[in-house]
Amino acid sequence: MRYLVISDIHANLAALEAVLADTPSYDEVWCLGDIVGYGPKPNECVERLRELPHHSLAGNHDWAALGRIDLSTFNLDARVANAWTQSELTTVSRAFLETLPIQAEIDGFTLAHASPREPVWEYVLDARQAYANLDHFSTTFCLVGHSHVPVVFRANDDRRRCDTLLGPFSGPLELGDERAIINPGSVGQPRDGDARASYALLDTDAHTWEYRRVGYPVEITQELMRARGLPRRLVERLALGR
Ligand code: ZN
Fold first, then answer.
1. H/E element holding 224?
2. Which end of the chain lies in a sparser environment, N or C, as judged by fewer CB atoms within 10 Å?
3. Which domain holds residue 120?
4. In total, how many domains does the chain have?
C-alpha cells in the first residue's frame, strides 16, 4: 500500500491543494491532525479531506476549535486564530472533527498527533524525548505531527538511544527494522526554515518513506488571512517557514 502522509494542514487550502496536485498515486491519505487552526480556510480543508480515502486524527488545534481545550492554554496569536476558527466552523465540519481520534493503529503503524505518550500535547523535538516515547507504542513505527518539522528519530543499533535523521534526503529512506518515530512535517505552516509544504509517501511494500516538498502560492493564503483579520505574525511566518 502507498500512503500519502500529511499533518498540520492548519486551514491552508492553497498548500493542501499543492500537495494533492504534486503527489504521485497513493491508496489512502493518513492525516495526523491539526486540520484547522491558524489558517483562513478551515471548512474548505475539512471538505477536501473528506473527499479523499483517508484516516485522520484530531490535533490540539482541532480540539480547540471544538471547544475541548481552553483557549487560554494557547499563546495570544493562536488564541485569536482559534477563536476565529471556532466562530467559522460549520455544523458539518464540527461533526466531522468530533469523530476523529487522537491516535490510531493502522496497517501495523501507530499514528498520533503529538506523541505516543501524550497524543495531544507533547512535542517530540529531540532524540532523547523520542527515545523515552518508544515505550509508549508497540508497533515498530509511530508517525507523529505537531512540531511541524520533518524528522526521523530512529533507535540506534544498541537500542539505548535514538539517532536524528534530518533532511534534505536524496531519495526514499529505507525504513529498516529499528523502531522509529517519524514526522512528515507540516503542509500548512512548516517550521524548518523551508516555506514549501512538507509531506511524505509511505510505501509499505517497498518499506520506504519519502519526504517531499512542494511550493504553493503563499501570498494567496496570506491575503485571505489579512482579509479575515488573523494575527500578523501568523501571516508573516508562512513566507519564512518558521
Ligand atoms: Zn500544528
1. helix 218-227
2. N
3. 2-240
4. 1
Closest CA to 133 of 120, 115, 119: 115
Query: 88 CA to middle of ligand 1, Å?
Result: 18
pLDDT tens digit string along 216-237?
A: 999 999 999 999 999 999 999 9
CATH number of the CATH domain containing 75: 3.60.21.10
| The three grid cell numbers given for residue 119, joined into one nine-digit string | 497524543
* C-alpha cell recorded at residue 40: 483562513
Q: Which cell numbers hold the place of 17?
A: 491543494
User: What is the per-residue pLDDT across 190-213, written as a single tens digit (0 to 9) for each?
Assistant: 999 999 999 999 999 999 999 999
At residue 14, φ and ψ (nearest 5 deg) are -60, -40
What residue has cell string 508517525?
143
pLDDT at 167 > cutoff 90:
no
Using the mean position of ligand 1's atoms as its centre, give its distance from the Cα of residue 147 in Å: 7
Written as nine digits, the cell of 72 is: 487560554
Q: How many Å lie between the centroid of ligand 1 and the Cα of residue 174?
A: 27
